[in-house]
Structure formats: structure tokens, C-alpha cells
């Protein structure tokens, strides 16, 4: 799968609606990441499982709301997220998917139409990329958006998720380097948005949660951590990719890291 991304298209989609982004992806006009696109709209992580595993996966999400805050669940066999993205097509509206079979990543693609079945159920879970614009609007730094490509650093942590059925494993976390004098404000702002991961799960020494080298990312790009920055970690919706390998389902499909579903939900409306 080839990422298609141009500066001109990115600028247009940054100021477009979520529906604009979904259509650009569906039409093949955008194959890049969704960082900073459709500013003000909530982005969502994706997991698709067979109906026989759907109840256990829902239990997993409800027991682990930090990495997997549920926004919507499709009806069995229905590819549309009717509550959060009317008119969406989960088979074609993400610019990147990961396909797991028996716990092994077997493919990355930009269209899962050929894999769709009448027994599949799709889950949308809030993504912390959604509150990046809120942080910026509050005058707070979002370091990864200043880097080429805007990719955030993502790691498998040593924090265990609460298991449900076959779904178990470590929490995946994202890292934002935060200037020391902004940490309290960042925590205050992000806590108001539990639907998109909410407040941090850890602040400070990465080794305390099993991350011994912040440059050795599992997904995304290594962070640039300044002398006065504090590593701050949030639960991440890549967690289902980690549990997919442990669950060893015959088929499980997730988003590709950084290639999210754009929803019609306005981030500010999620403020609690």
C-alpha cells in the first residue's frame, strides 16, 4: 500500500469536514495519515471482529476505557457507523488497515471490501489525536505536529489491561513531550475528554511503565524530548492490535497506526 500525501491536499483537508476526509479517502485522493485533518472533529481507532467475539471485545473496551473508549459499534454485517458518522463505509473510509489472522499480521491495505462479511462487527474508539487541536487552542505545545509527518510516538507498555474472554495483553500508550511548566494545564485540559482517552495514564520516568528506550518506538516516530520536557503518556487505541495477536482470532481487522476514522463528532461537544 502506497501512502498518497501532498502538502496542498493536506492543507485543504486540515480545514475540511470529517465527511470531506472520508470521501477523499474513499475516492483514493488521500492515502496519508490523518494527523491534524478535519480540525475540530473527533478521530477514532478501529477494531473489527467476528460477531462471535464481539461481546467479549465490548467487555474488553468497557473494562479498559483509557486505551479503548467506545464511541460507536456497528450492527452485525453493517459497515456504517450510523451514530457517529452517518453515510460512512468502514470498508473504504480509512486510509490504512491492518489484517490479522490467527494473531499474525498478514496484510496492510487501504480497502477491506473484499474481506467484509455478514458476521463482522466494527468498533470505533476515541483517539487522543482528537484533542491536539484543543491543546493548541489553549496555547499549549503539541510537539509531534511540529515534526515532518506529524507522527506520534507509540509504545507497548508494561501496564496490563483487564482481560475479557480471549482479549488480554499490555496497554499501548502514546507519548507527548510536555514542557514542565505546561504539564498541569495539559492534564487539566485532557481530563475533560474521556471519550478520546482523557487524562494521562503516566507522567515522568518511562521505565516505570516498562519503556526503557523512548527512541525505540513500536509504532509512529521517535519523539524529540527537550531538556525541560516531561514525558507524558496516554492510553492508545493501538491497544487492540496488541491484543489481536494474543487473542489469535481467525480474523481481526484494525486501523493502521495514524490512519484513523474521521467522525462527525465535534471534539468540543465531548468536553465533560
Features:
272 residues; alpha+beta; PSTPO5379-like; PSTPO5379-like fold; 7-stranded antiparallel sheet; 5-stranded antiparallel sheet; 6 helices
The number of distinct structural domains comes to 2
Q: Summarize the amount of helix as a percent range.
A: 10-25%
Major sheet description: 7 strands, antiparallel
Radius of gyration: 17 Å
Total of DSSP H or I helical runs spanning 4+ residues: 6
CATH superfamily of the largest domain: PSTPO5379-like
Q: pLDDT below 50 for ≥5 consecutive residues: which ranges?
A: none
CATH architecture of the largest domain: 3-Layer(aba) Sandwich
Mean pLDDT: 92
Secondary structure category: alpha+beta
Q: Assign the CATH class of the largest domain.
A: Alpha Beta
Q: How many β-strand runs? A: 12
Quaternary state of this entry equals: single chain
Strand content: 25-35%
Distance between the termini: 39 Å
What's the overall geometry? globular
CATH fold-level label of the largest domain: PSTPO5379-like
The string of secondary-structure elements, in order, is HHEHEEEEHEEHEEEHEE
Walkthrough of the structure:
- The chain is an alpha+beta fold.
- It folds into 2 domains: 148 residues, PSTPO5379-like (3-Layer(aba) Sandwich), CATH 3.40.1640.10; 110 residues, PSTPO5379-like domain (PSTPO5379-like fold, 2-Layer Sandwich), CATH 3.30.2040.
- It has 6 helices and 12 strands.
- The strands form 2 sheets. Strands 1, 2, 3, 4, 5, 11 and 12 form a 7-stranded antiparallel beta sheet that branches. It has a 5-stranded antiparallel beta sheet with strand order 8-10-7-6-9, with helices on one face.
- A hairpin with a 2-residue loop joins strand 3 and strand 4.
- The protein is globular and about 50 Å long.
- It starts with 6 loop residues before the first helix and ends in a 6-residue tail after the last strand.
- The mean pLDDT is 92.
